[in-house]
Amino acid sequence: MDFSMSPEIEAVRDMVSRFMTNEVVPVMEDFEKRQEFPRELIRKAGEAGLYGAVFPESVGGSDMGYMAAAVIIEEMSRQEVRFTSCNNQQGGTCPQAIYLAGTPEQVQKYVPNLLGGRTIGMMSLSENDSGSDALIAMKTFARRDGDVYRITGQKMWASIANETDVGILMAKTDRNAGAKGVTAFIVEPKKYPGFTAKPIDMLGMSKAFRTNAVYLDDFVVPVENRLGAEGEGAKIIMRALQPGRLNVAAKCVGLAQACFEEATRYANERTVRQQPIGRLQMIQDAIAEMATAIEASRTLVYRAAWAMDNDQPTNRIASIAKYHASQTAKMCADKAQQIFGGYGFAREYRVSWYRVYADMLYNGEGSANIQKILIAEDALGYKQADRHHGKTGLRDIRQTDIAEQR
Ligand SMILES: Cc1cc2nc3c(=O)[nH]c(=O)nc-3n(C[C@H](O)[C@H](O)[C@H](O)COP(=O)(O)OP(=O)(O)OC[C@H]3O[C@@H](n4cnc5c(N)ncnc54)[C@H](O)[C@@H]3O)c2cc1C
Facing residues of 168 across strands? Predict the structure, then answer.
């Protein structure tokens, strides 16, 4: 067993660190104040290779793998968690789904532009009446009408849908087939009529990256933009969500680390009775709890990334990593805020809003309860978490020759 990180990945971490320090951190608060989507910054991040680590060079990626991707997201999140709000759309679930199931034409048309930050992505699965059970309870329906589908329904919580150029949207094509009636579509809301995104007023969250309710009224999607066959949507999205879970777990580690760094700095600066509060044992207790949990979560995230890079079963370990890291982020955000005392509630201190992000990550991309069910059912022998490993029939992300069709 080797716990060292390769020099290539350490170099990537340094590059991301410099990019965030120089390009993102100085301007992100201004974007927030102006409530402006940082489109140009996303293009720069794409150009720097922040979204393409797991994709082959043939589609604009760097082919560095999931370990590099985890390190990139961890570092981005450590410096500015709000800027990671589009990572899954640019470099995760959205391009992954297209890469896994798209025709060579679809892959070449859409994936390089998403990874390069030249087009803005989206992944719209959840609805107002369905979240954890989205695939079963989905009501949005796509009706075939000659050369197009017309999609009607309401989607919910679609991140950056108000800005998207190209996204993945899930809809039923057969109302009576449960999850097997779900189909995936590549949608282009700016090009075709019938798509309206309305930003949701979210407590304490980014005003630059918005989460949206989406209203679909005979929204037009050309048949050539269907992703995979009718009814294949569940298989595609479940496979594409696996790395998404790793992304969220890495994001949680970065956020927890940010809480820890803010808390230790403040504990050394703030004095009570002529001594830094860091000298108080109860503050030390909090610091020790944070340091220990972060190390454990980071190790789990890297373990899951290693499994993905080495074609090992990943579903169970990705769930464990996501659950543990999201708990760690919540705990660290809570302790950091307490260490800041009253200042922990003043908006100018980042720890005042870190908690909201930690809570959101605890529930997003498969809630903590859902991860625990998967982990426990596997342990109890009811449902093996990795039963589909190597059997999806979808293209593998390590497959560089996209002309080699399914
Ligand atoms: C900021 C933000 C951004 C998001 N971005 C996107 C996006 O881009 N695209 C997208 O499609 N979705 C997105 N989501 C939706 C997110 O994935 C869902 O919120 C999540 O899947 C949970 O669904 P839900 O909110 O409907 O909760 P529900 O599924 O209604 O769950 C409510 C509660 O019940 C629990 N629960 C549910 N089922 C079970 C069970 N079987 N056993 C025990 N407990 C259970 C859950 O853990 C949770 O605590 C986003 C959400 C947020 C907050």
Answer: 123, 186
